[in-house]
C-alpha cells in the first residue's frame, strides 16, 4: 500500500488512522513482525506523531499490537483465552489452581484494600504474590491479601517469606469454610511493578480482576489479579476454576 493522505472524516483522525493501520496489519505484516518507527509511519500516512501514537495505543488496547522493551512495536499474536469459571467454593491454592506462589510478606495494604477487608489502615495483612504463565510467557500477576484473622492458627515457619511462606498461608486459609466469591473486571494501566513482572511497559493496558472471598460475616481474602490486556481475552463459563487456552479469535475483551 502506498502513501495515504487522510481526508477530513467525521470521526477523530486517529480513529480513522487506526482503521487504516489495522487493514495494513492484515495485508502487509505477519505476527511478530516489527513495525517501522513512528517517524516513518507518521510520514507515510501524513499525520502528526501525536495522532499516530493515539492510533497505536488503541490498536495495542485491542490486542493487535504489542510494545516490547528493547524491540519496538510488533504485530501481536491472537489473544490467549482466559476462561474464568463460576465455581464458588474454591480457595486460592486449592487443587487445580494453576497460579504459582512467588512470595509472601506481612505488609500494610493500600487503604482501599484495608477498607474492603475491614482491617485497620495501619494493620499489616499477609500479602501473597502469585504469577500465571502460559506457554512460557507471563500473562498475569496477582496480589492476594489475607488478614491475620483469616489464618489465626498459622504457625511460625522457618521461611519468613518466599513461596514456602505463601503456601503455608494458603493451606491455613483453606481451613475456613468458603461461602462464596464476588468478581469484578475493569480496564486499568500497568503499574511499574506489574509491568516488570508481565514484561510490559508501565502504563500499558491491563485487565484487573478483583475477587472477594467471603466466609462467615465478612471478606476473608481479597485478590487483585492483573492480566495482560494485549494478550488475554477473558471468558466466563461454568467449568469451575481457571483454565488458560489458546483461542483463534482476535477481539477486544
What does this protein look like?
This protein is of the alpha+beta class. 24% of the residues lie in helices and 34% in strands. It has six helices and eleven strands. The chain has helices spanning 13-28, 38-45, 49-61, 111-117, 163-173, 192-197; strands at residues 65-68, 72-75, 80-85, 100-107, 125-134, 137-146, 180-189, 205-215, 218-228, 232-237, 242-246. The strands form three sheets. The chain has a six-stranded antiparallel β-sheet with strand order 4-5-6-9-8-7. A three-stranded mixed β-sheet has the order 10-3-11, with no helix packed on it. A hairpin with a 3-residue loop joins strand 1 (65-68) and strand 2. It is elongated, with a radius of gyration of 21 Å.
Main attributes?
253 residues; 11 strands; elongated; disordered C terminus
Question: In a few lines, what is going on in this structure?
Answer:
It contains 6 helices and 11 strands.
Poorly predicted sequence stretches spanning 5 or more consecutive residues: 239-253
Query: What structural class do the secondary elements suggest?
Result: alpha+beta
Estimated radius of gyration: 21 Å
Overall geometry comes to: elongated
**Count of alpha and pi helical runs:** 6
Distance between the termini: 30 Å
The counted number of beta strands is: 11
Q: Main sheet: which strands, in order across?
A: 4-5-6-9-8-7
Share of helix among residues?
10-25%
The overall pLDDT, averaged over residues, is 82
Measured by DSSP, the beta-strand proportion falls in: 25-35%
> What is the makeup of the main sheet?
6 strands, antiparallel
Output the helix-strand order: HHHEEEEHEEHEHEEEE
Regarding quaternary structure, how should these chains be classified?
single chain
Amino acid at each position: 500500500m502506498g502513501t495515504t493522505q487522510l481526508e477530513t472524516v467525521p470521526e477523530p483522525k486517529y480513529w480513522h488512522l487506526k482503521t487504516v493501520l489495522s487493514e495494513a496489519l492484515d495485508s502487509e505484516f505477519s505476527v511478530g513482525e516489527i513495525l517501522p518507527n513512528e517517524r516513518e509511519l507518521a510520514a507515510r500516512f501524513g499525520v502528526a506523531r501525536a495522532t499516530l501514537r493515539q492510533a497505536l495505543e488503541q490498536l495495542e488496547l485491542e490486542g493487535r499490537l504489542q510494545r516490547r522493551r528493547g524491540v519496538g512495536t510488533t504485530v501481536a499474536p491472537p489473544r490467549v483465552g482466559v476462561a474464568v469459571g463460576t465455581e464458588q467454593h474454591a480457595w486460592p491454592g486449592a487443587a487445580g489452581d494453576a497460579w504459582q506462589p512467588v512470595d509472601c510478606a506481612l505488609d500494610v495494604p493500600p487503604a482501599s484494600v484495608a477498607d474492603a477487608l475491614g482491617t485497620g489502615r495501619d494493620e499489616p495483612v499477609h500479602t501473597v504474590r502469585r504469577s500465571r504463565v502460559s506457554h512460557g510467557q507471563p500473562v498475569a500477576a496477582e496480589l492476594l491479601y489475607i488478614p491475620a484473622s483469616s489464618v489465626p492458627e498459622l504457625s511460625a515457619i522457618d521461611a519468613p517469606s518466599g513461596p514456602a511462606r505463601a503456601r503455608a498461608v494458603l493451606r491455613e486459609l483453606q481451613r475456613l469454610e468458603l461461602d462464596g466469591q464476588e468478581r469484578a473486571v475493569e480496564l486499568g494501566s500497568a503499574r511499574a511493578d506489574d509491568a516488570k513482572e508481565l514484561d510490559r511497559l508501565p502504563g500499558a493496558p491491563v485487565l484487573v480482576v478483583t475477587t472477594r472471598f467471603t466466609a462467615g460475616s465478612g471478606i476473608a481474602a481479597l485478590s487483585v489479579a492483573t492480566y495482560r490486556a494485549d494478550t488475554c481475552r477473558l471468558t466466563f463459563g461454568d467449568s469451575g476454576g481457571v483454565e488458560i487456552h489458546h483461542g483463534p479469535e482476535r477481539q477486544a475483551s
